[in-house]
Amino acid sequence: MTPKKVSKIRVNRILQNFNLYYNQDGQLVRRLLYGRKKKTNMWKPTNPTELYTLGLLIFTVVLAIISAIQIFLFIQSNRQATRASEAALSAAEAAVESNDISRQIMIAEQRPWIKHEVNIGGPLSYTAEKGWHFPLEYSLTNIGKSPGTMVSFYAQMIPFNISVYPKGSIVNNVPQGSPLPGTDIAEELQKISQIPEDKEWLKMSFGQILFPNELAKGLLNINANMELFEKAKEHEGFSGQFLVLVCVKYGSTLNDEMYRTAKSYQLWKTVSGQSITLEGETISASELALTESPQLFTKIIE
Fold first, then answer.
1. Rounded to an integer, what distance in angstroms lies between the CA atom of residue 185 and that of residue 183?
2. Which of 16, 36, 212, 239 places its Cα 20 to 30 Å from the Cα of 260?
3. Is the model's pTM score more than 0.85?
4. Looking at the predicted structure, is the pLDDT value of residue 172 above 80?
């Protein structure tokens, strides 16, 4: 072999080592290799120590996989248990709410309902010692389906003032400033309906059981608060009438609630154009009228 051929062979081997070759145009380019991977030699145990190490490694990997599976299953089981517990709790709460609603409906259908009626029981009179006093006849009827317990009826009489502008506050027929406040009937009814919470209400009239369709009648002598009527003398808006506020309160055998019905009635002279004199007088029953107030919010029914 000539030195020239040997040199060419060496050059070709060098080019092959670097994946280089000459193309048809005589240019030196890199050869692209596809699907060829560099062959690597895997480690193989050759002695007992290496075999033991390999076995220990495999055992550790298997144990880790088993532990991971157990943790995953535990988490899933815990989630399912939590969901089941939440579902059971929701079902229990729904059952309790349903029972409460059913009970409320039953109470509303079966509860006692006590209505009252009032009439004039005698003359309206005034004395310097007692002030104004008035006998009021009343009747209570349980129109509900269960007994009414701790039934109590009570009443109050107050002057009826209306809202007016004070004298001298109207200039050129135009009111100036604010009017004097009149009697707030709704507020007064709230006051009288709260009396049982403030006082020993059984002593005010009576506390008894009223069965369905049972009727109870009575006569209540109302002694008015003298201070209220003295203040009314200074109020320019006194209407010439009195207000009689009544309230009946009662309980139920179905629950611990107390129910109440409060109304306002106007007491006035039937003689045309005449007002009740605040300074005092005696007016016979035939000259009096007692009518339910037509104003808005003059009832409380619970």
1. 6
2. 239
3. no
4. no
